[in-house]
Write a structure and sequence with these properties.
By secondary structure, the chain is mainly alpha-helical. Helices cover 97% and strands 0% of the residues. The chain has one helix and no strands. The radius of gyration is 28 Å and the shape is rod-shaped. The N and C termini lie far apart (94 Å). The mean pLDDT is 96.
Length: 64
């Protein structure tokens, strides 16, 4: 009987390790997706900031 409990414990621990590994894989994928999205948003922010500066200069030119 104790041997059977040992096998069940090992099987349970292996299952827990496997589930933990799947969780890490999922979170790493999510992290990479968020980093890519952040990069795209920063690029868009820089583009809009440049356009805003250009428009302010254009406005100043037109009002004088």
């Amino acid at each position: 009987m104790p041997e059977r409990i040992g096998h069940a414990l090992v099987a349970t621990l292996l299952l827990a390790v496997f589930a933990s590994a799947l969780g890490v894989i999922h979170l790493k994928h999510h992290e990479r997706s968020l980093i890519a999205q952040l990069s795209r948003l920063r690029h868009e922010h820089d583009r809009l900031d440049s356009e805003w500066s250009r428009l302010l200069l254009e406005e100043a030119t037109l009002t004088t």
